[in-house]
Write a structure and sequence with these properties.
There is one protein chain. By secondary structure, the protein is an alpha/beta fold. The strands form nine sheets. The chain has an eight-stranded mixed beta sheet. A seven-stranded parallel beta sheet has the order 11-12-10-13-16-9-17, with helices on one face. The chain has a four-stranded mixed beta sheet with strand order 27-30-31-33. The two termini are about 65 Å apart.
């Protein structure tokens, strides 16, 4: 029969005597008066239980019941204020039982420094006692930090030794003169306060006692004297472990888990954003979401609200690189690039998601002003890397633990593991799990669940002259709910998400998905895995070379066209409304913009990117800013065309309108230069990569859209059973891509007569990452499909790209590359006589006939493929 746990036994005792009219077990007034804040109901409950356990008149038979009083554990949720309970118990034990010697014990220096702020620094806003002083029975009590307890004591002093278990283990194992030792501790009663106590159980977990273990060291101190006490605090005691359960069943005095903490409203709500595996995209989303929170607070009269973003990596090297990437994202923001990014992202998120609301909000704002504020808020000096060796310096530790302060500038934290425990932060609102190197094991997700629980602490901001310590907008459809919500940006990996849910359930962390998603998965067919094509076949990808200064000798090298078209949106026009069920289309026309060089000069002067010292880094061959304006290699000869609503003329544009257009062009150029700088240059030399090592099973996470909602890139899964020519079990793709696959299915029988092997390979960016690099340029290109054909003499590799009509102009360079692949100057390493590479025209609705004609010419000896050609897109 399982042993009854102490906290369950106390539940039954409470019903009998805790809350009777004669119940003496209440938090004493001297404790309440000497704490800065009021104890919450659950903190009072923890205190009362401890108080009850000290009452000999009620608990004289407690030992007979099999429960401990010497060693007790408070199993309380991360963020619930365990240190507050600890502080109240210190005052109680000092006043009622004359304890003066307290040892605060933990496993990390970071928690030591946090506790110094909590218990010793009266100037800190994290100080837990009354800043005016501690007074008991009219006498002032002092809490004094010590390394060793003095032999002669002041009766009004609490002596507190803050130390790590590692340090005190060393001190007691190798005692030094005037230092702490087991002999010195044997002289007086002590109370050990063990924080994050789950770290002290190495011997218990291993089912054997090690003479030199930390656990053994604690036990030696505890049993030096009869009245010594060990009060442990932890949110993560694993009672599923039989040895841990056996040790703590008689010691856990109070259990208040994260689920209760969140249900009681003391935390933020926690929503998961199951983001893509593109870290840059997740960084941008978190950046915009964080700034959205700040602006919503401002709009609602909350004068100071600074939301923190944390980027969590698996390794320090990765974290440092991601910090550089983040800095580059901030520096490279432009109206053009940000607008384009948000418009594209809006098509991939559901209408009820937070991100859709964020993107819609910003697209209505003055993006130039938004970007300037973002760049000020997120400049490098406002970013703290918690992995640096100097993080434990006083200045950095204070910055890290005072993030809510009005004069603390930090907005972003990059971290690996140092902040999983002991970090007090209330205004953390976004935790982003960096995909690169991310662990998916249960151990990794347990750590993340603990971090999310820590970040879920409620931030008591002031609204309408009132400060609340619990959520107030749960039941209202109010923009301010975003200020009571933590977003955890996860990675989209099925095993990871499954383990994360288990980890969150283990600590009763209540979370929900920000948007309802569907996970589509597909696998390489077993039938394909049995083929020689899979086992020994290869695909061909082009090589690239490092860039040289000569590669940056002109704007063309950065893929900046001489002819640029911009849609001017600053005009006000009148549109006749005819049918409420049809979307209004504004007719437009294009006209060239002719401005003299003064507009360019003024626009360049006010854009810091175009300072010559900065430009020289990206354009090493540039000799002067004059050359930038006068050389054909750069801005001379550039033509700008403006798309205007019908009825408006380019002559109607004001000087400020024209300058705005030039600003946009320069921002476009800046974005292209930053993106393409120091990238490799693609060559017309192709090397083989094995099919077996290239193709992978994969999954795609997509939002569940509301019925009737218009989505331009709806991703759906189509079973491909019985179609051995398609190498995956399911075709996960948008409608245009699947229409092309359906069209190809009509030709398969015909092709299988001509070729012994016919396979259509989906090239998904999350799986194969089979990527070409632009010939003579830096841009990457992942053709959506590869048609693999083989006969007795040749292997044919055909690159196929469905492309919507709206993207044809922008991606014209990809069509040019597909055409260039057919050239005679293509070199195939080691396979020139047996391999032929081909590219065909884009596939789309209007280009279907040309696509089939081109395909017929290249793979069917010019004979028309007889498949049905019909409209396959609804």
């Amino acid at each position: 029969m399982a042993k009854e746990r102490l906290y369950n036994w106390l539940d039954s005792q409470m019903s009998n005597m805790f809350y009777t009219s004669n119940n003496p077990h209440e938090v004493p007034d001297y404790v309440k008066a000497n704490l800065k804040d009021e104890l919450r109901h659950y903190q009072e409950e923890a205190f009362r239980r401890f108080q009850f356990m000290q009452d000999d008149s009620l608990t004289s038979g407690i030992s007979d019941a099999g429960f401990q009083r010497k060693q007790l554990l408070f199993n309380m949720a991360t963020g619930s204020g365990k240190t507050m309970v600890m502080s109240s118990l210190m005052l109680y034990l000092f006043k009622e039982f004359n304890y003066q010697n307290f040892i605060f014990l933990v496993n990390t220096d970071a928690i030591i420094q946090k506790t110094q702020e909590n218990m010793l620094n009266r100037q800190s806003n994290k100080y837990l006692f009354n800043p005016a002083g501690i007074f008991i029975d009219g006498e002032q009590i002092v809490i004094q930090a010590v390394e060793n307890f003095p032999a002669v004591k002041d009766k009004n002093t609490i002596y507190l030794k803050l130390t790590t278990i590692q340090k005190i283990h060393g001190e007691l194992s190798n005692p030094k003169e005037n230092g702490i030792s087991l002999d010195s501790l044997e002289e007086e009663d002590i109370v050990i306060l063990g924080d994050e106590a789950h770290h002290f159980n190495a011997s218990t977990k291993k089912e054997k006692e090690k003479e030199q273990s930390w656990e053994n060291t604690i036990n030696k101190m505890l049993y030096l004297r009869t009245k010594n006490k060990l009060l442990e605090f932890s949110a993560t005691i694993n009672m599923d472990d039989k040895n841990i359960s056996q040790k703590y069943s008689d010691k856990i005095i109070y259990k208040y888990d994260l689920g209760e903490f969140m249900t009681d409203g003391y935390s933020k709500n926690v929503l998961r954003l199951q983001s893509s595996d593109n870290d840059d995209e997740k960084m941008k989303d978190a950046l915009l979401l964080s700034q959205y929170r700040k602006l919503i607070a401002r709009e609602n009269g909350i004068s100071y609200f600074k939301p923190i973003v944390m980027f969590k990596s698996s390794k320090i090297k990765i974290s440092e690189q991601k910090q550089q990437d983040f800095n580059a994202i901030i520096e490279g923001l432009s109206v053009e690039s940000l607008s384009k990014y948000m418009n594209q992202r809006k098509t991939t998120v559901s209408s009820n998601s937070t991100l859709e609301k964020v993107f819609s909000f910003f697209l209505e704002e003055d993006l130039d002003s938004v970007i300037r504020e973002i760049q000020e808020d997120f400049e490098p000096r406002n970013i703290l890397n918690a992995n640096e060796k100097n993080m434990l310096s006083v200045d950095n530790a204070v910055l890290l633990n005072t993030l809510e302060n009005i004069n603390n500038p930090i907005r972003v934290i990059f971290a690996v593991a140092k902040l999983n425990e002991g970090w007090d932060v209330l205004n953390l609102y976004d935790i982003v799990r960096i995909s690169e190197g991310a662990g998916i094991t249960r151990t990794a997700t347990d750590s993340e669940a603990q971090l999310v629980g820590r970040g879920a602490r409620y931030f008591p901001y002031e609204y309408k002259r009132e400060r609340s310590y619990t959520r107030r907008f749960d039941n209202t459809n109010n923009d301010l709910r975003i200020l009571e919500t933590l977003h955890y940006h996860t990675i989209n990996e099925k095993g990871y998400i499954a383990n994360l849910e288990k980890s969150m359930n283990a600590v009763n962390l209540i979370t929900a998905s920000d948007e309802t998603v569907t996970i589509h998965e597909t696998k390489i067919k077993n039938s394909f895995k049995q083929t020689e094509t899979y086992k020994r076949g290869v695909l061909f990808v082009n090589e690239s070379r490092e860039t040289t200064p000569e590669d940056y000798s002109s704007l063309e090298k950065f893929t900046i066209p001489k002819e640029w078209v911009v849609q001017f949106i600053g005009s006000t026009i009148e549109v006749k409304f005819q049918d409420e069920n049809k979307q209004v289309q504004i007719e437009r026309h294009e006209q060239p913009l002719n401005v003299d060089k003064r507009y360019f000069q003024k626009a360049i002067q006010r854009n810091p990117f175009y300072r010559f010292s900065n430009l020289k880094q990206f354009l090493p061959m540039l000799s002067s800013k004059t050359e930038l304006m006068t050389s054909e290699k750069y801005f001379k000869g550039v033509s700008i065309t403006v798309s205007l609503p019908m009825g408006q003329d380019v002559s109607d544009l004001s000087s400020s309108d024209k300058l705005e257009i030039i600003d946009k062009f320069l921002a476009f150029c800046e974005d292209k230069i930053r993106r393409n700088y120091k990238k490799s240059i693609g060559l017309k030399k192709f090397r083989p990569v094995t099919i077996k090592e290239t193709l992978k099973d994969y999954e795609v996470v997509v939002p569940k859209f509301e019925s009737g909602q218009h989505v331009t890139q709806r991703i759906e899964s189509h079973p491909m059973k019985g179609k051995d020519w398609f190498v995956y079990t399911d075709a996960i793709m948008n409608r245009l891509e699947y229409a092309m696959v359906e069209l190809m299915s009509n030709f398969i029988n015909e092709l299988q007569v001509k070729y012994k092997d016919v396979y259509l390979i989906r090239n998904d960016e999350k799986a194969t990452r089979f990527k070409l690099t632009e010939f003579g340029g830096p841009r990457g290109f992942m053709p959506d499909f590869v048609l693999y054909l083989a006969d007795e003499e040749f292997v044919y590799q055909v690159f196929i790209e469905p492309k919507g009509e709206d993207r044809e102009k922008e991606d014209a360079w990809k069509q040019e590359m597909l055409e260039a692949i057919n050239g005679t100057d293509i070199e195939i390493i080691g396979e020139n006589d047996h391999v032929k590479l081909m590219g065909v025209k884009f596939y789309n609705r209007t280009n279907r006939s040309k696509f089939v004609e081109d395909l017929s010419e290249k793979i069917n000896d010019g004979k028309p493929l007889d498949g049905k050609i019909e409209l396959l897109i609804n």
